[in-house]
Amino acid sequence: MSIRVAIAYHSGYGHTARQAQAVASGAASVPGVHADLRNIAVLDEPLWQALADAQAIIFGTPTYMGSQSAVFQSFAEASGPVWARQGWRDKLAAGFTTSAGVNGDKLNTLSSLAVFAAQHGMHWVSLGLPPGWLYRTTGTADDLNRLGGFLGAMAQAPSDAGPDDAPSTADLRTAEHLGRRVAQVAVQLRQGRLVGAA
Q1: Which of 107, 129, 155, 180 could make a disulfide contact with 167, Cβ separation 3.0–4.6 Å?
Q2: From CA 140, how far away is CA 146, in angstroms rounded?
Q3: Alpha-carbon span 43 to 38, nearest angstrom
């Protein structure tokens, strides 16, 4: 039976959608893992069922005004019935976000996603990469984790650049790394649970 990793995201202008696709590509690169991209702008039964069936959910949202988008917040609040029955308890969780600013207060958004996951009783998976780019004098803008995040994958997309041009390749590769890491942890967790059950 394959492991399902759901990528539950909102994208206002297409930039976060590109980041979500990179996350899905990374997750799908792990043998035995199926990546399921889900746009949370439509809160329908297929969405909730897909998230119920997933072993891991990676949350994604643009950062607007220093926090997650209103669409993502509506999804979070609509998950109240799932919380009441502890439907996502012990699933893996992770997060990613995009903003126009290099900083853009993306950490606040990722922190909000981690708290949201914790309220659902989920296990948060960090990015697991050292910082790149300006962390060392030898760094370049092509480094993985060039924005130096730890809690999740960060991306930057200039406000006057379309989704065909941004986020950068480095940010998309960082998102791909996050998807792969979550999928690998999901595989390890399933193996451990199978051993424990035996």
Answers
A1: 155
A2: 8
A3: 10
